[in-house]
Design a protein that fits this description.
By secondary structure, the chain is of the alpha+beta class. Helix content is about 45%, strand content about 25%. The chain has four domains: about 140 residues, PAS domain (Beta-Lactamase, 2-Layer Sandwich), CATH 3.30.450; about 100 residues, PAS domain (Beta-Lactamase, 2-Layer Sandwich); about 90 residues, Signal transduction histidine kinase, dimerisation/phosphotransfer (DHp) domain (Helix Hairpins), CATH 1.10.287; about 150 residues, Heat Shock Protein 90. About 25% of the residues are buried.
């Protein structure tokens, strides 16, 4: 019901005739009506006393699905949600609050003619028209906004849960390296409260060497976009921690610029890497120790002959000097031969010195054939000692590989000495060892073959694990060291049974790219 005693003139489409000043400085009266009807905000005008609908703009009619004539007789139950929060008494109280105090806000669930309910933000304002007092309700659909807000809250909650469970810590640094954001994981990794990290210089948390690395990365980051770093950070417990750090440049409009760092604690990995380095150093030591042991045995055997011969020639010269009938030619002959024997001993010592002069680890670009030639003296020495025939078939062209020359030479010596020692127990006419070098498309290959008893007698085929040796005085470490040396240089070493008799040991190392 409409309030009694208040008369409203009908406007266009029978609506309320809104009061229009007689002399508008701007739009005309008709323009004023057009402006009101073109508002995107929905407007309903209620009688201040009866709360009946007097008029609605086109936006309200479109949203509710009613014509103005259909809207006028409707009450709250006809156009509001079914929930008790939107019953008529609540609506009347809200409108009355606006009539009493001038304005009142609420969230109201309207229901359209089709039955669709939608939540709105509604503002009721008391207005005094020429024809009487009214309450103007302005409302807009906020259902999508509320749904979006709820979705954003859920997304934020999931993101927070995800960040809490992330192993990687997240930091955002400004251009000066000051922390502007830190995730919970980052605080835990750095051993600090997240709030205390904000505003702190991340550079000051780095050790001096890592600080220089990070400063350089931050300087170049805007141009490069991202970089991968390894940083050592000072930890409150006194033990520095290592972090693998992925750095990315951020430029999100004006809200967030700087560097985003993803931190992953790699302290245990770095410790294992350091232990591996120490193990390699120990391997180098064992390899060179083993090499020098083999050399020393060969030298001790071979030097005895020239030195003993030189001593005999010197003794003979000494005796002849005291003989009154001695001839000068005899003295010259004795001294010349003594010198030759000493020269021979010097050559043996020089070969040893040239082979082991570089005791530090060093990777070189070298011809595989050259390494074999450097080892030949000692291989032939062992072959002569055991009266074993050597067959050498080397590639006509250089085989360029990158390797540690001394250690690779030790592998060659070890494999060849093993083959020669294997043949020492066979009849002399059957003692034969073949040494071959050649190149495949990607590798340089060294191969040594004997005619011994082969590999069938080796337990479980564990030939490179250091647990087996066929030598009565052997330790079994030679083949295990050879395997470590070759595989560490990205090569492979293997043994095969020959078709007729014996075994072939082969190693392959990648050809140098340059």
């Amino acid at each position: 019901m409409r309030g009694k005693g208040n008369t409203y003139a009908g406007g266009p489409a029978g609506g309320l005739e809104l009061p229009v000043p007689n002399s508008l400085p701007g739009p005309s009266a008709e323009d004023y009506k057009v402006l009101i009807q073109s508002l995107s905000y929905c407007i309903l005008i209620h009688d201040a006393e009866s709360k009946d609908i007097l008029w609605a703009n086109q936006a309200a009619c479109d949203m509710l699905g009613f014509t103005l004539e259909e809207l006028r007789p409707l009450k709250a139950p006809d156009m509001s949600g079914a929930d008790s929060r939107y019953r008529r008494s609540v609506g009347v109280h809200w409108l009355q609050d606006a009539a009493d105090h001038g304005i009142s806000r609420t969230e109201w669930m309207y229901r359209s003619k089709s039955g669709r309910e939608f939540l709105t933000e509604a503002i009721a304002v008391r207005v005094q028209l020429q024809s009487g007092s009214a309450v103007m309700v302005q409302f807009r659909d906020i259902e999508k906004e509320e749904s979006l807000k709820s979705e954003l809250q859920r997304t934020e909650g999931r993101l927070q849960a995800f960040l809490l469970r992330m192993a990687e810590g997240i930091l955002v640094l400004d251009a000066d390296g000051v922390i502007t954001f830190a995730s919970g994981a980052a605080g835990g990794q750095l051993g600090r409260d997240v709030d205390s990290l904000l505003g702190e210089s991340f550079l000051d948390l780095c050790t001096p060497s890592s600080k220089l690395v990070l400063e350089n990365a931050l300087t170049k980051m805007q141009a490069d976009g991202s970089s991968i770093l390894r940083l050592e950070l000072v930890h409150p417990d006194g033990n520095n921690r290592w972090f693998g750090t992925s750095c990315h440049y951020l430029a999100l409009e004006k809200d967030l610029t700087g560097a985003m760092l993803l931190l992953q604690d790699i302290t245990e990995y770095v410790a294992a890497e350091e232990q591996h380095r120490r193990d390699l150093e120990h391997l180098n030591y064992l390899g060179r120790y083993n090499a020098m042991g083999d050399m020393a045995m060969a030298i001790a055997h071979e030097l005895g002959q020239p030195l003993a011969a030189a001593t005999n020639f010197v003794d003979g010269v000494t005796r002849r000097v005291k003989d009154p009938e001695m001839r000068i030619d005899d003295l010259v002959y004795g001294l010349d031969n003594a010198r030759k024997q000493i020269d021979r001993a010097n050559q043996i010592v020089k070969s040893l010195r040239d082979f082991v002069v570089q005791l530090e680890q060093s990777e070189q670009l070298v011809d595989l054939n050259e390494i074999v030639r450097d080892c030949l003296y000692f291989i032939r020495l062992r072959a002569d000692q055991h009266e074993t025939e050597l067959q050498l078939v080397m590639s006509d062209s250089p085989i360029w590989i990158r390797c540690e020359k001394v250690l690779t030479g030790q592998v060659i010596l070890n494999l060849c000495h093993n083959a020669i020692d294997e043949m020492s127990g066979w009849p002399q006419r059957e003692r034969h060892v073949a040494i071959t070098t050649y190149a495949t498309e990607s590798s340089g290959v060294f191969r040594v073959a004997d005619r011994g008893k082969g590999l069938a007698h080796i337990p479980d085929g564990r030939i490179f694990d250091g647990a087996f040796t066929s030598k009565s005085a052997g330790s079994g470490i030679g083949l295990a060291l050879s395997h470590r040396i070759i595989t560490r240089q990205h090569g492979r070493i293997y043994a095969e049974e020959n078709e007729s008799r014996g075994a072939t040991f082969t190693f392959e190392l990648p050809l140098a790219s340059e």
